[in-house]
Specification:
- There is one protein chain.
- The chain is of the alpha+beta class and 388 residues long.
- It has a domain of 201 residues: Ribosomal Protein S5, domain 2, CATH 3.30.230.10.
- Helices cover 41% and strands 21% of the residues.
- The protein has 11 helices and 13 strands.
- Strands 5-4-6-3-1-13 form a 6-stranded mixed β-sheet, sandwiched between helices. A 4-stranded antiparallel β-sheet has the order 10-11-9-12.
- β7 and β8 form a beta hairpin.
- α2 crosses α4.
- The longest helix has 25 residues.
- The protein is globular and about 60 Å long.
- The structure holds alpha-D-galactopyranose.
- The site of alpha-D-galactopyranose has 10 residues, from α5.
């Protein structure tokens, strides 16, 4: 992949001195879904798949961007002086340009432009954070090329800021954090209320993490996602009239049960219930993992999916089919949707000897019910952004 992206750079922009190759990972979340914008816990890990980039500084104020995945889009060229607002013409480049814009908002203004080529190996629209990996990649490249003093954690926060304020998705911090802070063979137990975190080794003896992609074509993720988030914020505002809390993640299950009557809209109550229970489930799951009780971790993954299906309403028939068929298979320790939902992927922990049967049986049932194929990948937990 390194040579491919360097060759891609050369093909678009010619030989350039000082061009370097970079990588930033995608992520999969093991448990703790739709908790990160509620001040709750998440438990994602970085993957060894992600976005590769090759970049070099220029002597003028031009930025030129090219994606080897979307080569028909061609080279997008823009001046540093013309990126104050996102342009519909800019397509995918609004992600890197949003990061440049957000760096400037933080006082890190670019004096000169740059050329960048990217090449990703995260399946498109799979919900494995191709956009967050592109944001983190861009932030990492800007730090390297311009010598800005900015930590990986800040690169994550800047990426989120640009996605919220430039690209219009009100996402939480999980994806960018997982990409920027990833550590090989470890998941990140992150408290989104204060960004405190610890690494938890994932030692799956005799089992692997398998991702199944629904390959669902049309997703309405952003608008539905933003709607869920607003509903949680409304629920919080109502509860805050009676309770001293900063986020739904501050509530224990007992506190929620004792106060849920304050949420008179039944749908809102269900959404808040998910946020509270999922947060507690995530804390419990990480404890189970530390205690070596992977079976219990798996049960909590299933409960997480059920809550996302029944209360939070972000799964849909494609994700439900993948998860529900997986639960039937001996050797599947746990399975659930991962990421925002409405399509994208499930994550499963599957015993080595069951993986082939898992892919075959779930794959066949999926095709029978949904009418097209799911795709399966066995993944590994990798490191955060790096020069390669
Ligand atoms: C998307 C968002 C994250 C998080 C998940 C749901 O991936 O980008 O911030 O909210 O959905 O857990």
């Amino acid at each position: 992949m390194k040579q491919a992206v360097l060759d891609g750079f050369k093909a678009q922009f010619g030989e350039k001195e000082g061009v370097k190759a970079y990588f930033a990972p995608g992520r999969v979340n093991l448990i703790g879904e739709h908790t990160d914008y509620n001040g709750g816990h998440v438990f994602p890990c970085a993957l060894t798949i992600g976005t590769y980039g090759a970049a070099a500084k220029r002597e003028d104020r031009t930025i030129r961007l090219f994606s080897m995945n979307l080569d028909r889009f061609g080279v997008y060229e823009v001046s540093l002086d013309d990126i104050e607002t996102p342009s519909p013409k800019a397509g995918w480049t609004n992600y890197p340009l949003g990061v440049v814009w957000a760096f400037a908002k933080r006082g890190m203004k670019l004096d000169k432009g740059f050329d960048m080529v990217i090449n990703g190996n995260i399946p498109n629209g799979s919900g494995l954070s191709s956009s967050a990996s592109l944001e983190v990649l861009t932030g990492f490249i800007l730090r390297d090329l311009y010598g800005f003093e900015v930590s990986n954690q800040d690169i994550a926060l800047i990426g989120q800021y640009s996605e919220n304020n430039y690209n219009g998705c009100n996402c939480g911090i999980m994806d960018q954090f997982a990409s920027a802070m990833g550590k090989e063979n470890n998941a990140i137990f992150l408290d989104t209320a204060d960004l405190s975190f610890e690494y938890a080794p994932i030692k799956l003896e005799g089992a692997k993490i398998v991702i199944a992609n629904t390959n669902k074509k049309h997703k309405l993720t952003d608008s539905q996602y933003n709607a869920r988030r607003s509903m949680c914020e409304e629920a919080l505002a109502i509860l805050q009239k009676s309770l001293d809390i900063k986020g739904l993640g501050d509530l224990s299950i007992e506190e929620f049960e004792a106060n849920k009557h304050l949420l008179t809209d039944p749908d809102m109550q269900k959404k808040a219930k998910h946020a509270v229970y999922e947060n507690q489930r995530t804390i419990e799951a990480v404890k189970a993992l530390k205690d070596g009780d992977i079976e219990h971790f798996g049960k909590l993954m299933r409960q997480s999916h059920e809550s996302l299906r029944d209360d939070y309403d972000v799964t849909g028939i494609e994700l439900d089919t993948l998860a529900e068929e997986a639960w039937k298979i001996p050797g599947v320790i746990g399975s659930r949707m991962t990421g925002g939902g409405f399509g994208g992927c499930t994550v499963s922990i599957v015993k080595d000897e069951a993986i082939e049967n898992f892919k075959k049986t779930v794959g066949e049932e999926y095709r029978r019910k949904i009418g097209y194929d799911a795709t399966f990948y066995t993944v590994e937990i990798g490191n955060g952004p790096q020069v390669i």
